[in-house]
Predict the structure.
Amino acid sequence: MPATAATNVPHLTSPPITIRPAKAEDCDVIARMIRALATYQGVAERVTAKVENLRRDGFGPDRKFEALIAETNGHPVGLAIFQSHYSSWEGATSLQITDLFVDETVRGTGVGFRLVVEVGSIARERGCAGLQLNMVHANPSRTTLDRMGFMHQDDLLHYRLDAAGLKKLMEMER
């Protein structure tokens, strides 16, 4: 069902959703959802992470990210991956949602909203200054972010060097 049609589904008919911290045993599911998100965004070829990378970086001794899993009847239907982000301008830490995925079967039923609220609750408990997330322009859920109070920052442009770009930068003359 397209996301726009799903917004009309009454919450009373929605299956009960539980949200829990991800565990190392969830890395196969996390990898599947990351690939599904990238496919949805039309950039599936950019996903190179392996299950073992996720296990090491999310559940090892030097954690780089945290994740929440949304489930209905014990079946994973949503994912939020987040990490700390320090703002030198604010002199404070925020949490940044780097990946937010909701399975097509439950889009429009509030699963994404619930995941964002749960990460927001964690940010508040930790004394963070705010919550950030990035979203592709084509994502129809952008209007939901506006309703939640997120502000699009027109003055900021997101730039990234991938591994090949980083290698090229290191080879440039100084």
Observations:
- Residues 3-171 form a domain with the Aminopeptidase fold (CATH 3.40.630.30).
- The first strand starts at residue 17 and ends at 21.
- Confidence is low (pLDDT under 50) at residues 1-12.
